[in-house]
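Protocol step 4 of 5: obtain the predicted structure for the target chain.
Materials: sequence only (see below). No template structures provided, no constraints applied. The aim of this step is simply to have a reference model before the mutagenesis design in step 5. Sequence pasted as it appears in the construct record:
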Amino acid sequence: MSGIAVASGPLPYGHPVRPASLRHPLRLAAAPVVVLLLAAMVSGPVAAEPPHAPLGVVLKDRVVFPVIRDHPVAPVVTTPCTTEIVLEGGTRILHVDVVLDPGHGGPETGSVGSNGLVERDLNLSVALLAERELVDLGYSVLLTRRTDLHMSIRQRAAIARAVTPRVFLSIHHNGGAVRPSGDAGTEAFHQAGDADSRRLAGILYEELQAAFAGYWVPWVDTVHQGASSRLRASGADAYGVLRLATEVTSVITEALYLSNPPEAELMADPTVQAVEGRALATGIDRFLTTDDPGSGFRPAFVDEAMTGTGTGWGCVDPDYSGPSDVSAGYTADEHSAILAAATRLGRSPDWLQRFGVHAMDFFHHLSGRPDLGPLPESRVPDVTGPVVLMSSWTTEERAVLRRVAAAYGITDAEAQKLGAILMVFLAELMG
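Step 4 output (structure tokens):
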């Protein structure tokens, strides 16, 4: 079986080193920059950029961060709350065989049994057990979360897309059914119109039903017992982890009903959790090594009332990297111009540098903008001046700084100074 592909360092990205002898006074550099920004506001449509190849994930402190952009120093990633940050350290993983997604997390508990069993925790326990079984079979495995972590559906799908697994499985347990049943009410949902996803769902349904057949409790189910597609009125998949990860074979399993007290008691047993984990691993192995068709298929259905969870609403990230200080050098005349502009605007030089970068990022994202970069060599600001101004960027702000630097083909420090140049020019226009 193939193993985890780990990168030895960041993928190449950057620009040539500029000689320290270049000098570009603020007033000379400002006008061409503003012209570029104004052009971005009035230009016609530009062709969409081609999709980027998957860049893998960074695994750090048991948290998975999908990479969205590379940089020589550290990659730009998204956090569990889908915030862009610059992340230093950790282990880069480029590919795995299987991604397991323990559903819910943090304040999103999922179903809760009368015995206090919380789906959020049960999903993680079963995922960890399934991972162990898959590793024993020779597969490389990545979990979207290994702790009780609040995470949006968009982030879960981004993780799967970033490592191009052969299988992406989101593990859940159900709630709400009251109809008596002769066997377990397992549901498996596959991507609409995808034959591989449908086959995987049918195989996982078979394995879970066979695993639970060794037990008897007063089971419950709904008309959705089996393998099917849950759709929006538009025909798109209702579940975000399926709809947002079309590049990979994706399935959701909903095993048993925690809202049914006997089933909640059954699933509280660690040995039963291990049986479910083994069933999921066996099903994935069957899908990858056989042509078994699966069974239990039902027609797709539309559920317009479905709201679901996983929006990440109210999600708050810890500070994964901490603030970073970026320094830019100015000549004495440039520094005087910065101080004058800051005084005129009632702000600090630090604010000038940072606000200017955010303004450039705003212009760069305007619809219909032209390609702005790289900045001509003659207009790249020199950052080796004797008067050094430093700005402290949070992890979120640093991602913006790096995005602007990439757009213009310059360094973080040069982008920071470019922001100050823009603000000096605008302050002088204001009089």
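Step 4 remarks: The radius of gyration is 26 Å. Residues 270-289 form the longest helix (20 residues).
Proceed to step 5.
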